[in-house]
Amino acid sequence: MTTTRTPTTVLFDLDNTLCEHATTFSDRLAAAFERVGVDPFFGTADVHRWLPRVSAESALDLREQVFGGIARELGRDPSVADDLAAAYVDPDPADVRPLPGAREAVDALGEEYHLGLVTNGGRAVQRAKLDALDLGDAFDASVYAGGAMPVKPDAEPFERALSALSAAPGEALHVGDSLGSDVAGANALGLRSVWVPHAESLREGPTPSHTIDTLYDLPGLL
Q: What is the pTM of this model?
């Protein structure tokens, strides 16, 4: 049983928590269906549901596994999923904008707490986003889950961040937009979870410790 203590550490998710792309994943997926010439037969919710089930070495490999799994689940031709994976265009990682309160929350909390980043995504891509946001040096520890490392909600990314920051789960919070990966992973390990829903976030899942509308509200929790 995890004992809750006075927080010393705040962990952040990156995508759709601290920043977002100009185009949404839903937009890019719809464009891929259009390029392939197939009527859409799955959406963002299906992709979110499948992401924790796969481990991939690249973004294309991830899409092939996720899209292929959904296609087989729905009795569709897996080759169509491969075509969709190839037709999907990844956004420029540097073409991101901060979400409301992101910079302010990181700046304010960084003066008093140890800050960590726990994100599903390759180091090079995620670092490009951080640099574009001028957050490259904002975190005391960063964990990039994927490839050989299981992605959130697996415990390993959280455990690595906590170890690097010499923090116990009971003295840490994790802030993210995903109930299925951020909140579920934090809750399972005994961290306080702070859910800041994004427009693309699924609304069904585990119950977070706290829910806030924007990151402007985060410092007030502490």
A: 0.87
